[in-house]
Write a structure and sequence with these properties.
Shape: globular
Order of helices and strands: HHHHHHHHHHHHHH
Number of domains: 2
Helix content: 55-70%
CATH architecture of the largest domain: Orthogonal Bundle
Number of helices: 14
Low-confidence stretches: none
CATH topology of the largest domain: Endonuclease III, domain 1
Mean pLDDT: 88
Number of strands: 0
Structural class: mainly alpha
Distance between the termini: 28 Å
CATH class of the largest domain: Mainly Alpha
Largest sheet: none
Radius of gyration: 19 Å
CATH superfamily of the largest domain: Hypothetical protein, domain 2
Length: 231
């Protein structure tokens, strides 16, 4: 593990401040589901995060609302529902057959193993909680990190935007995988900033640091970005 230097931390801090001033985090439907009324129910956060896998936020929210109306989003209701009933409710989110089976199995396990409440898992040390959550159906590192970070855990979730931005800014290796990117970001930034990073990096990736034809000429952090310097 390389030792971080003061200049590296300083550059990272400058970039974060610039992104915060240029990309204010605005509440979206997806964010409100995760952060507001649903934030006290970890099961619901898992459900909406699973629905968001391989689809847009808008589609995930539509699927979530339909599932809420037609079936109900509780471990008991989902465990008792038919797979095809769940599947038809979440069809708009894509991969509905796989997700419907996973959601019912998730509901069954949460009901049987945790009496319908996984809050106790979130009280465990962060790495222990991550490992236990990932034993649940359709819960990988990203989904576990989203849940833990929303509930105030010291972790950073990494999606495709976060990965691309992190690599282009030189915060991690160009060949780094999920766990390496996450650990590199956690070493580089202060714990108090962990929750902001995914939101800011996603916003930056969508507005400027696009996968194809990034807008380097108008990027607010172009003078501090290793990718822009090389471009």
């Amino acid at each position: 593990m390389a030792i971080l230097t003061a200049p590296e931390r300083k550059r990272a801090s400058k970039i974060l401040k610039i992104l915060q001033s240029n990309l204010p985090i605005r509440a979206s439907d997806f964010a409100s589901v995760l952060v507001n009324q649903e934030s006290h129910d970890p099961f619901r956060i898992l459900v909406v995060t699973i629905l968001s896998q391989s689809c847009t936020d808008i589609a995930a929210i539509k699927a979530y609302r339909r599932l809420e109306t037609r079936v109900g989003i509780t471990p008991v209701r989902l465990a008792q529902a038919r797979v095809r009933e769940i599947s038809s409710s979440i069809r708009v989110a894509g991969l509905h057959r796989q997700k419907s089976k996973a959601l019912r199995e998730l509901a069954r396990l949460v009901s049987e193993s945790y009496s319908g409440d996984i809050s106790e898992v979130l009280q465990k040390p962060i790495e222990e909680a991550r490992a236990e959550l990932q034993k649940l159906p359709k819960v990988g590192p990203k989904t576990a990190d989203v849940l833990l970070s929303v509930r105030g855990g010291a972790t950073i979730s990494v999606d495709t935007h976060v990965e691309r931005v992190s690599k282009r800014l030189g915060f991690t290796s160009s060949k780094a995988k999920y766990e390496n990117i996450r650990s590199d970001l956690m070493r580089l930034f202060d714990v108090g900033d962990y929750g902001k990073i995914p939101l800011l990096f996603m916003a930056h990736g969508r507005r400027y640091c696009k996968a194809i034809r990034p807008l380097c000429s108008t990027c607010p952090v172009r003078r501090l970005c290793l990718y822009c310097v090389k471009a």
